[in-house]
Amino acid sequence: MDNATITVEFLPSGKTVKAVKGSALLDIAESAGIHIGIPCGGKGRCGKCKVVFEEGAPDSTPTEEDTLTEADIAQGYRLGCQTHVGADAVVYVPDGVQGAKILTIGTARVIPFKPAITKRFVKIPEPTVHDQRSDLTRVLTAFELSERVACDLAAAQKLSKEMREDGYGLTGVFSGGVPIAFEGGDTTSDCYGVAFDIGTTTIAAYLLDLNTGKQQSVAASVNPQNRVGDDVISRINHTMQESGGLAELQSLVIAEMNRLVETLCHGAEISADSVYEAAVAGNTCMMHLFMGINPIHLAQAPYVPAVSAAMYISARDVGLKISEFGRIHALPCIAGYVGADTVAVILATDMYEDDRLTLAVDIGTNGEIALGSQKRMLACSTAAGPAFEGAHIKHGMRAASGAIDAVWFDECELKYTTIGGAEPVGICGSGLLDAISCLINAGIIESSGRIVDSEEIPEEYSHLRSKLVLGERGNEFILAEKEYTSISEPVVITQRDVREIQLAKGAIAAGIQTLMDNMGVTADDLDRVVLAGAFGNYVRKESAINVGMLPNVPISKLHSVGNAAGEGAKLALISTDARGDADCIADRIEYVELTTDPGFQDRFAEALMFGED
Amino acid sequence: MDNATITVEFLPSGKTVKAVKGSALLDIAESAGIHIGIPCGGKGRCGKCKVVFEEGAPDSTPTEEDTLTEADIAQGYRLGCQTHVGADAVVYVPDGVQGAKILTIGTARVIPFKPAITKRFVKIPEPTVHDQRSDLTRVLTAFELSERVACDLAAAQKLSKEMREDGYGLTGVFSGGVPIAFEGGDTTSDCYGVAFDIGTTTIAAYLLDLNTGKQQSVAASVNPQNRVGDDVISRINHTMQESGGLAELQSLVIAEMNRLVETLCHGAEISADSVYEAAVAGNTCMMHLFMGINPIHLAQAPYVPAVSAAMYISARDVGLKISEFGRIHALPCIAGYVGADTVAVILATDMYEDDRLTLAVDIGTNGEIALGSQKRMLACSTAAGPAFEGAHIKHGMRAASGAIDAVWFDECELKYTTIGGAEPVGICGSGLLDAISCLINAGIIESSGRIVDSEEIPEEYSHLRSKLVLGERGNEFILAEKEYTSISEPVVITQRDVREIQLAKGAIAAGIQTLMDNMGVTADDLDRVVLAGAFGNYVRKESAINVGMLPNVPISKLHSVGNAAGEGAKLALISTDARGDADCIADRIEYVELTTDPGFQDRFAEALMFGED
Lengths: 613, 613
Known about the structure:
homodimer; Nucleotidyltransferase, domain 5; 28 strands; Ubiquitin-like (UB roll); 6-stranded mixed beta sheet; 18 helices; alpha/beta
């Protein structure tokens, strides 16, 4: 009975999945590709993950009875983070609950739990006329530390008051054993950290309990620097062209990080004063901007970062509103376009300690690629461009409500789904790759990338001939007819769209091939191919291989690991071992500069094709 | 001929001293007890030490010809810092040139020259497409440092620009080997530090060249915190009674320190941006206030400091306007009333490494006393009160123009001098002690402290009977008759004045006796008695012994060492060895709390007497 299978249909998308009876709704939804946001970290407190069981509502839990009204419960409302599904069900997941499809749940490796931040409570012997040691000496001695240990001035300034606030019971907050704050009374149970992954487009943030390593809440938002441009180059240009541009971009990202900290803390019902450290990953440019370090030399050959090593900084030095005594650990970068996010991905996937050969690909505006094992590691960055994020694509869009995100043949019938089940508005990266893969398979796109003329479509797919129309600039394939879309035109894939995707996937494929050639291996030698990041999570693996973006490996070797960069940042937050590993990764990895690699251009030209001609 | 002696008379005081022909005027003046201020450090640039030779003007030097006008030179104007005296001379030293009689020249021991701050210049290899290391990694490697070394964020933020500013020639500024700043080009010759001694009343500051250890300029000023009260307790009360009082007192002292830095740098013609470190000594309360640490527990038993260990802080964290990357080393304190200034005195006198037994006494509002040798060290603090600074004394005043600063018998005739040779305005500490000593010797003050009645004055001094008058509260001795003073009354010493001095000198003597008893030694065991601070420098040693303030040792064992606290701060500035020694001193020294010492009250009662009854 425990292994009995149930069927759960999610509305409004209509996606239906099988699940083991009694599974958590969160897991079932995830398996359907539906991400239910849980701002409070799954504690059942915030009520923001409220879903409606239209059929098969399970019994309400005591937590749900606390958080929801009786009327809600009677109507089938349940908390997404609390409910387990015991029978076939139909569940409506409101759009707001799904939120933006930004990845905040990844895969994490096991690493010793050794946070840099620790707390200890001690009773301090009261000063008397026979024991006139200074407060600080008294306290350091009680914590079994040398009086010579460098105590932060800010901590020293508050020590005397805190020490006397709760009858000489005092909690010390330590960073790598050095006291950074003192708090009256026993506050050891309140000890948190935040991990950030600062992307050019989105910022993901995770609140972790530094006593347990457990995630408390998750939040993500759009990087507000996008107001000066979508890509890294436009951000760098802004710092060069505008006086105060660097400070402006820094304060934009810091302000957003502060909002995320607020959201995280509100969700978990804790005070930001109990957050003592932030671990930050991001691409090299984002790391520079966040630290207020000018990134201009990233924009011109030889593309060197100002800073690549890990940095330890005071939260107050950059204005991050965690504890006033808080620290920031900025993960190391590898090169101008292989950043701390790639280091974090490598950290999270453990590939640097594994004897298996792993290829890790993180596709965003730039495709960062790492190849290696414990023996040797290579990395490069390819300018994939923003096509997968919808830019320069006629109906391209981000992975948001109404985006066609999956396309497949059901027999010979072309089917698609949209995010949120809405009427199509456009097509996002995963849908685009699916569609092109299907059209290749149907002979509608040739290996050269040309969209055939209507009459060239094979007989088997002759019913699709009506979908091929001549647009302004060549043939277009209609994916969704005008009457089914919520825009006043059909959603199409144009010849130019195919060319954009060819360039993007070609850059990635050529980058991968260059690393494999540099290491002297072929696709057959790969033990694992790991896809990181949002796109890597949502793309259909078969399509990615079929269009030739990824090497032709068995699907079983291909793993989507979600926001591995965020996972890596979390590891750095909860483990100084991981920080040491990150330093080693950044030191050890060999960066391959594609612009000067002798074979890259040839590989790129070859990789533009869809399969053998 | 070289050893010929000349006579130099100083006006307006009329003090006349003998000197070796050709001596520097500065030295001759110093031997006459006249301190000529040299804001530019004796470079002959600022012109502020201008004196007038009324007779015997030496030839002008080229420097003088640059700085002074021809007319000035013709009139006998010379620069105090430049001129050497080759013949008998009469020199007028204007009041402004003498400035406040604040000690800024002390005695210094020899200690290895090892400043914490060092500079190094390197040529950085230019980045190329074949060497894409980050700027920071490139620079750290060029400086033969590990990439893991913690680089200050502020330094990292400016690195890229500085590195490219002068063709990849870069100067690194290091604190204990850790980079704190980078400067384009070779700036190694500009490397300075400032030593501060923050007293309750005055602040002394010294600019040192950290390449050579040489003093560049000296400045001193009144601690502006005196607007809320003259003593430590009134400062502490202010922090308790006024909201924002602590911040106010901190910003007062920091603002004054900033003015002193400006003066020092202006005098030496350097930029404050080239001052990378400050070493700060001061009494415990002043150290707290300067660091923004609340001193309230110093005001109530058991009088514990919040912080006693040495602190390393960022100049910008307290707003000290040296280099924006600058550091501060705050010397350690010993106890609530034995501060970093005492540690600095011990450091400067070397008594902690000497096998001779040294007694060091620093008399201000509190008398800090240290006794010991390399074997063992004791320290205590006595509440001497402000009598020696002129407070609670009828005609008491600070050591400023018009103060009677020396009193002696010429045959049986009582003589005095005043500071600046002006008509008497009052009497300062050294004059008071001299006068009382003389009156004891003349039988006019009894060992009990009672001023005798006119008829009790011994025959030998019967001509002084007219000086004894009955004041409002008992007998008074007229030191300067009304017609010779510039106040409309005579300058007198009252019975109450004598009582105040008894209490003050008794406290110091009892403190000394308590330390000697604790160590099991007597006055005969003392190898050296060292008097630190302004009062210790100006007091006549014979008088200090005669009134019983100091133990009865041969005068040859008694040494005035000037502002030894400032000297100690300078040592800490130019030698990390000295810092280590200071930490050891603070750790090793045994603090004796007089308020609970069983024998202190008896010793105090005994020490109130002037000699044996």
